[in-house]
């Protein structure tokens, strides 16, 4: 569907007002924008008369649990019998592979509403609202609230603020624009608590998480005359510190914190022949292109992929790609 923004928003709200069972899903390894947007959207569609259920391929980091008195964010389970959904709202997913096994719940007559801000969205929905200019999908959900004239209570304000705060890297990324700040100002007026949210997300780590961060930083490696930086979480480090979801989200950010570094990456050994790579870069580079080579994706300045190579080989491969990107 190609239509302007207002008619897209109107058609999304019109569909929601028809009611029915709605699946709200986001991408694998859901982040703050995923969870915040999903919880807020849950409240919206419920107010508009739908019967919603949130299901993701993976569980979210426990730190988002403070977004409390809320419906469960369910993790897909092949053994569970799920209701037949009349429509699905897919958030933050440029293609259907990104929702993982939740894909199994999209029966042929389940209408798809696709709401996203990533590059390269394949427009797989009946309605596709894709806007690369917004800083977070949480802003698009905010606009749905406004267009539907549904009150944003303090819980929803916290959820949407969390979405925007995390997706802008605490208002640091280039995506941070006046629209994002205006929406956040309104969310503060509706009762969002910056203190509560920031403490929950950025200042309540387990001691083991901070010790792991310390070891990763102590062992970080600089390359290309100090223009690139790797953080390396190999099996030794993972065995020492990581228990289930105990890992730190946002660790990859630290790969860019050294003066002079333009491109950074965090490599995690997840299996003997699979290495997860989170890439970060400053404005003048494009790490989504590096991730795309390995079937991953993301944004120009923040992207990720899984490289189907053992840790040492994956490291060599990514370093070579970074060198090419730096044009040296
Ligand atoms: Mn996002």
Tally of contiguous helical segments: 10
Gap from first CA to last CA: 42 Å
User: Sheet bearing the most strands, described?
Assistant: 6 strands, parallel
Percent of residues in beta strands: 15-25%
**Count the strands?**
12
Q: Which CATH architecture of the largest domain is right?
A: Alpha-Beta Complex
What do you see in this structure?
With 328 residues, this protein is an alpha/beta fold. The protein has 2 domains: 5-201, inorganic pyrophosphatase (n-terminal core) (Alpha-Beta Complex), CATH 3.90.1640; 207-326, Roll (Diaminopimelate Epimerase, Chain A, domain 1), CATH 3.10.310.30. It contains 10 helices and 12 strands. It has helices at residues 5-17, 32-47, 137-148, 154-167, 178-189, 194-202, 207-218, 235-241, 287-293, 311-326; strands at 20-25, 50-56, 73-75, 87-91, 111-116, 127-130, 221-223, 228-233, 263-271, 274-281, 297-299, 302-307. A 6-stranded parallel β-sheet has the order 3-2-1-4-5-6, with helices on one face. Strand 1 (20-25), helix 2 and strand 2 form a beta-alpha-beta unit. Helix 1 (5-17) crosses helix 3 and helix 3 packs antiparallel against helix 4. The longest helix is centred in the first third of the chain and has 16 residues, at 32-47. It starts with a helix and ends with a helix. The structure holds manganese (II) ion. The site of manganese (II) ion (MN) has 6 residues, from loops.
């Amino acid at each position: 569907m190609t239509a302007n923004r207002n008619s897209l928003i109107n058609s999304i709200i019109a569909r929601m007002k028809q009611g029915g069972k709605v699946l709200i899903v986001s991408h694998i390894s859901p982040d703050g924008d995923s969870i915040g947007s999903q919880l807020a959207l849950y409240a919206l569609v419920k107010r508009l008369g739908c019967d919603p259920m949130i299901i993701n391929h993976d569980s979210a980091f426990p730190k988002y649990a403070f977004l409390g008195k809320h419906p469960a964010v369910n993790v897909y389970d092949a053994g569970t019998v799920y209701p037949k959904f009349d429509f699905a709202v897919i958030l933050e997913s440029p293609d259907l592979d990104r929702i993982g096994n939740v894909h199994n719940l999209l029966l042929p007559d389940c209408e798809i509403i696709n709401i996203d801000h990533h590059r390269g969205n394949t427009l797989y929905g009946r309605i596709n609202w894709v806007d690369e200019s917004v800083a977070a999908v949480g802003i698009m959900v905010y606009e749905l609230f406004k267009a539907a004239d549904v009150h944003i209570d303090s819980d929803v304000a916290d959820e949407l603020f969390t979405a925007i705060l995390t997706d802008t890297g605490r208002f640091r990324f280039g995506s941070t624009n006046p629209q994002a700040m205006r929406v956040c100002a309104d969310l503060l007026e509706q009762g969002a608590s910056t203190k509560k949210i920031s403490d929950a997300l950025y200042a309540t780590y387990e001691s083991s998480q901070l010790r792991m961060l310390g070891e990763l930083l102590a062992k970080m490696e600089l390359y290309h005359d100090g223009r690139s930086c790797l953080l390396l979480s190999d099996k030794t480090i993972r065995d020492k510190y990581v228990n289930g979801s105990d890992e730190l989200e946002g660790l990859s950010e630290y790969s860019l914190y050294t003066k002079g570094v333009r491109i950074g990456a965090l490599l995690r050994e997840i299996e003997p022949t699979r290495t997860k790579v989170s890439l970060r870069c400053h404005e003048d580079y494009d790490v989504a292109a590096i991730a795309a080579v390995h079937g991953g994706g993301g944004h120009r300045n923040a992207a990720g992929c899984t490289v189907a190579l053992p840790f040492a080989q994956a490291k060599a491969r990514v370093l070579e790609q970074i060198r090419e990107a730096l044009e040296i």
